[in-house]
Amino acid sequence: MDCNPLLNRISNQFQKWSSKSLSYAGRIQVIKSVILGVQIYWTSSYILPMKVLQRIDEMNRDFLWGKSDHKQKVSLVAWEKICQGKKFGGLGIFSAKLWNFAAALKNIWYIHVNKELLWIKWIHGTYLKHNDIWTVNAKTTDSWLWKQMLKIRDKALDLTGGADNLKLIIGSCYKNSKVKPSALYTILSPTSLKVPWYNTVWGNLNYPKHSIISWLAVQNRLLTQDRLARMGVLNANSCYLCNGDAIESRDHLFFECEYSMNVWNKIMSWLNFRWRSCNWNCMLEWFTTSLRGKGFKQRIKRMAFNTSLYKIWNERNSRIFIQKSKGPDQLVKEIKVDMLILILNGNTAPEDREWVLSL
Ligand SMILES: [Zn+2]
To answer: What is the average pLDDT across 110-122?
Structure first.
C-alpha cells in the first residue's frame, strides 16, 4: 500500500503516452525517464518490496510492446534480455529489480565504510552493536527494511562467493570517491557474450527508430508471416511486396524479395558500393566483420543498411494494414532523403559532405 503512489504515478505516465502513437524508440525514451524517476526518488535510499519491483518491470515491458493499449499481445524479446547493455544484445534499459539490488548494496557498503555519517552511526548503535555488516544476523524483532537489507546482502554474498570477493567488486565501482550504482548494476547483470552486430545496429549515423527495427531483425524477432504462422496466428503466408508465391520470412524480406532486392541494389549503386549480396546471413556477416569501423564510408553503409530495413519493413506494414503501396523507385528516393537529411544537417566533415553531394 505504501508503494501505491509510486505505481500509480508510473501507470499515469504510461497512460498519458500510450494514446500517442510512439515508435519503439520513443517508447524506450519514456521508459528510461520513468526508470530514472524511480531510481532517483525511491530505490537509492529505500528498498522496495520485490512484488512492487516486479510490477514496475512488468509495466515497462507492457508499455514497450504496446500491451497496455491492446494493440499487440506478445513480447518480441524477453525483458531480461532488454535490460542488458547494448553491447550484449539488449537495449540498455535498467531493470527495477536489479537496480534496487545494486542501490541496496551501495547502502550496505556505506555502512561498512562511512562510520561517521549520522544514519550509519544510528545503524551501528541500533542493529550492529559489535557485529559487522557482513556477518550480522537479523532478529525477528528487527524492522522489515533491515531484514530486506540483510537478505540482499546474503544474496550478494551467495552470488559473489563471499564477503572478500564482494568487497573487491564494490570497491572497483568507485568514481569520484562515490560508489557508482550503474557500475555495480553492470557487474551484477547476468553475464552474456558481446554481440558481433553491435556496431551495425547502433552506429552513430543511424536513426534510433531505424536501429530498433534492425535490432529486432538481427534476432529474427520481427513479426513476419512465417513467425505468425508458427505461432498459429495466421494460416496463409505470401509476401506482400512481390505479390508472387513467395513466403514471407525475414530472409525473404531482406533482401531476397524481388522488390527489396531492387531497392537495395539501387541504394548500393548510389553509394558506389561494389560488394553486394542479397542473402541475409552473408550480408550480416560482411557488415559485422568488414564494416564495423569508424570511417565515414563504413558508417554511411551501415546507415544505408538500417534505413533500408526500416523503410522496407514500413512499406510491408502499410501494404498490409492500410492498403497503400509505393513502387521501389519511390522507396529508394525516401531512403536517400532520410539519409541526406541527417548527413547534411549533422557534424559531417566537409570532404565527406562533398563526397555525398557528388553521388
Ligand atoms: Zn517478396
So the answer is: 85
Q: Give per-residue pLDDT as tens, 58-68.
A: 999 999 988 75
CA of 240 to the centre of ligand 1 (A): 6
pLDDT at 314: 96
Ligand 1 centroid to residue 261 C-alpha, Å: 9
C-alpha dihedral (26, 31, 37, 42), degrees to nearest 10: 180
What pLDDT does 42 receive? 64
Cell numbers linked to 247: 513466403
Helices (H), the chain: 4-18, 24-38, 50-64, 79-82, 96-113, 118-123, 144-160, 163-171, 181-188, 198-202, 208-218, 225-230, 250-251, 258-270, 280-290, 296-321, 328-345, 350-358
Give distance in angstroms: CA of 208 to centre of ligand 1. 26
Exposure on the CB side of residue 212, measured as CA atoms within 13 A: 18
Listed residue (53, 57, 47) closest to 93, CA to CA: 57
pLDDT digits (tens, 9 = 90+) for 323-337: 999 999 999 999 999
Write down the pLDDT at residue 72: 55
Distance 318 CA to ligand 1 centre (A): 15
Confidence band for 187, pLDDT divided at 50, 70 and 90:
confident
The CA distance from 347 to 359, in Å, is 19
| 254 CA from centroid of ligand 1 (Å) | 9
116-128 burial code (b ≥16 CB/10 A, e <16): eeeebeebbeebe
Q: How confident is the model at residue 263 (pLDDT cuts 50, 70, 90)?
A: very high
Q: How far is the CA of 315 from the centre of ligand 1 (A)?
A: 12
Specify burial of residue 142 (Cβ count, 10 A radius: 0-12, 13-18, 19+): middle
Which residues fall within 8 angstroms of residue 319, CB to CB, at 6 or more apart?
240, 241, 325
Average pLDDT, the chain: 89
Per DSSP, the three-state class of 174 is: strand
8-state DSSP, 256: I
Distance 117 CA to ligand 1 centre (A): 67
